[in-house]
Amino acid sequence: MAPSATFQEMMINLGAGEQKAAEKVFERFTGKLLGLARSRLDARLQQKVDPEDVLQSVYRSFFRRQENNEFDLDGWDELWALLVTFTVRKCCKQARHFQREKRDISREESPKQADEQTEEFTEWKLVSREPTPEQAVLLTELLDQVMSPFDEQGQTIISMRLQGYSEKEISSEINRTVRTVRRVLSRVRIQLVSEME
Fold first, then answer.
1. Which of 18, 32, 52, 138 could form a disulfide with 13 if both were Cys (CB 3.0 to 4.6 A apart)?
2. What is the rounded average pLDDT of the residues 37-51?
3. Which is nearest to 171 in space by CA: 155, 186, 160, 162?
4. Which own/partner pairs from 109-114 qualify as long-range (CB within 8 Å, at least 24 positions apart)?
5. Taking the CB of residue 22, how many other CB atoms lie within 10 A of it?
């Protein structure tokens, strides 16, 4: 069956980049192609890929290739079939992309909504860098227990180490050997181990 003159004319105009010809394609197919893209992208995948983005990619590919006269279509039905093929392939490509090992969306978990949370649902507790008041009290008590057997110099060594100073830095700050600093810190470790048993 020979293509209709108006269809053939529209395809020639598309190849020339005419806006009105592109609008005819948009008007005729956008709603159906968008529905197709939505049906091919499951809800999880639609969190990563918008069906409208897929459709824009379909149109970009089609118009670019039409400018190079790559298609010999006999009518609107063949154009529809071509655009459907593009849409399905692009959806499949996106699905493959987000199912690769490092991006696999099936491995992602989403937290329940606040109003759906129950006492059993504890996996998504927010982690704070600041200790809770109870933790702060326990830490203070533990530090007091650990530091109490040491003299002022020993307490300074422990305090500086907790602040992130190296053994060498502590040694030069308090005018003692690195060996002395290590000995104090070793006693602290032993005491902490015994406290935890």
1. 18
2. 80
3. 160
4. none
5. 17
